[in-house]
Design a protein that fits this description.
Structural class: alpha+beta
Number of helices: 1
Largest sheet: 2 strands, antiparallel
Helix content: 10-25%
Distance between the termini: 17 Å
Radius of gyration: 11 Å
Strand content: 15-25%
Shape: globular
Strand order of the largest sheet: 1-2
Length: 65
């Protein structure tokens, strides 16, 4: 997961970074959303990027609220 200023129109900015300790392999569905909500509760985490565990493909960009 990456943190930084949340701006979906400008992903991958230099002031964003991966927040180690927030990543986890979870099943799709409710477990995925539960983990995203948990990670968004960390200080400094502005959004969550979800990737496929199988192919490492980008799946979603989750913002709080």
């Amino acid at each position: 997961m990456r943190s930084g200023r949340a701006n979906p129109q400008d992903p991958g900015r230099a002031d964003e970074r991966i927040v180690y300790g927030t990543g986890k392999v979870v099943a799709t569905g409710a477990a995925q959303m539960d983990h995203a909500e948990w990670a968004l509760g960390w200080p400094g985490v502005a959004f969550v990027d979800v990737r496929s565990a199988r192919n490492n493909c980008f799946q979603a960009h989750i913002l709080p609220g």
